[in-house]
């Protein structure tokens, strides 16, 4: 009797193990560009609605203290994918012709998932460099995403405000006419194409000097390009093009576990909503591209439902840095913002050492697996790597994702506790210890264009200390009152910086 029972338990346990092995969840990461803490309705926006994002929040776990690793794009993305702080690799905002930021052999969340049986793909804004230094946009562009674990890629190479204004699919520019080769330069004007400075009458949106180089589709960009006319994107169509590519990837890989990294061009400048979304808000282009972004999320979720994949797909929705209104184009974001608070109650925004630089909307949605919850756990995107590894029981080497922590319990809503210490990178370092926030005195060089930018940078030659429990908007610098705490923060920061964890 007992023997029979033991055998039965054994058979049952094996069946369960087999079941869960075949059922590794798909992972979709919706990674919005420059979306602020207060920019979606489930985080308090009232003058626009984001029903599709709200649906994820209503049915999933909504973090209130989750952070991207840095207050700008390239460093955030570097940390997200590698689980390593960007300063260790000196990752900064890249021009559109920069070489691939990753050294050969770098382990990323994509290599890790690929090695564990996932089909991996990236569709959207890359901004992590491509090639070895001199890119031939007319040939095969390599190394790129394929060298860090992505089997499929369809990219906006850098940002939509940088040349070249063409897509790159699996290392090739689609629809390119060989008789009209692409050339790109970030130093000299090449060819005789109109620029924002020479032909301002061609512009849909006026731009600052930095964004006043080659014009494509009535928008001047950073950098010069010539050629590739048949391959150039139409900004207003990008969300549709990308969604089709993302959906095809899902359809193609629906029978095996897949990882889709989907970094949106929205809501970064230039903000060019499709006519379907123009006027959907009273906030002009910035509001409209938020609604457009919400639609993009909704369409992908609809596809998952129709393929009956929703219950076996973990969906993450978040942003790469805080919000900015004027980022170079005259799209009237500042004038039309009204009562909308892109940063919520937090101070600063994109580029800033204050909380709104990195505290961003973050939702983890897994139908039937994660109960609807609001979590105040302190988590960072640098933890994405080890958390996903824990989710699928992946074995890691010692030198993988060395700054990353496994926060799976927080993601699944099993605990409200996340990190104790958390680093925020900007043009200085901020460090959280629970609800205390330290901002180091600025020591490095700040780019010239940034010095004149009208944002609350949080940069100071003095150290700062805030008690976010009592002062979430970082108004009262308590550094002078708590010298021993300042010392503790300094020591911890030095230790993080000196630990040179990259091997
Ligand atoms: C800055 C650009 C800004 C934006 C940013 C990158 C200027 C004056 N500003 O250099 O418009 O493109 O880089 O944004 O050129 S991010 O979200 O990709 O980090
Ligand atoms: Ca960004």
Structure, explained:
With 503 residues, the chain is of the alpha/beta class. The chain has 2 domains: 26-182 and 227-419, Alkaline Phosphatase, subunit A (3-Layer(aba) Sandwich); 422-498, Arylsulfatase, C-terminal domain, CATH 3.30.1120. The chain is built from 11 helices and 19 strands. A hairpin with a 3-residue loop joins strand 16 and strand 17. The termini are far apart. Residues 6-21 have low confidence and may be disordered. The site of 2-acetamido-2-deoxy-6-O-sulfo-beta-D-galactopyranose (NG6) has 16 residues, from loops.
Report a brief summary of the structure.
The protein is an alpha/beta fold.
Supply database-style keywords:
about 500 residues; alpha/beta; Alkaline Phosphatase, subunit A; Arylsulfatase, C-terminal domain; 2 domains; 9-stranded mixed sheet; 4-stranded antiparallel sheet; about 25% helix; about 15% strand; binds calcium ion
